[in-house]
Amino acid sequence: MLKPAIMYKEQIQNEMKSKFYTDKMFFYSGYNGQCNISISDEPKVGEYDYASVDENGNLVGYIGFFVDLYERMAYNFGLISFDEGNITLASDLNSVMDMLINDFYLHRIEWRAIEGNPACRAYDRFCKKYGGNKYVMHDVVRDVSGKYHNSYIYELIL
Prior knowledge:
By secondary structure, this protein is an alpha+beta fold. It has a single domain, classed as Aminopeptidase (3-Layer(aba) Sandwich), CATH 3.40.630. It has 4 helices and 7 strands. The chain has a 7-stranded mixed β-sheet with strand order 1-2-3-4-5-7-6, sandwiched between helices. A hairpin with a 4-residue loop joins strand 3 and strand 4. The longest helix has 15 residues, at 88-102.
């Protein structure tokens, strides 16, 4: 179930800190640095931050994105699971996509991911379901072990 992230701000930020120096952080941030999620007390127009919570109110993940209403585009997605294997986050991501497509009347949705991110399977399914595209940029990001990863750009034109 989606809840405003501000209600879980401290918990989300603490969960992010626990991901520092891990592959989860690498896949979330897209680089080898560490970052925390900035959740505004008063979001700007077009700024959306959600906590994904289970039926008991337990935090399972975070979903954030921006919507440009002039361009009719959603972009700059952030998604991270704090409870591996919990399907609530996947269900909430589907709800977000449905909301963006059916309620916002967008023209374009775009997001990025790094090769090896387990979420890429779901992203590929979104593209298949909605007729989107996936573009591959080769050897874009180098992990701490020295291995290069491809970067993917996903787009849905609605």
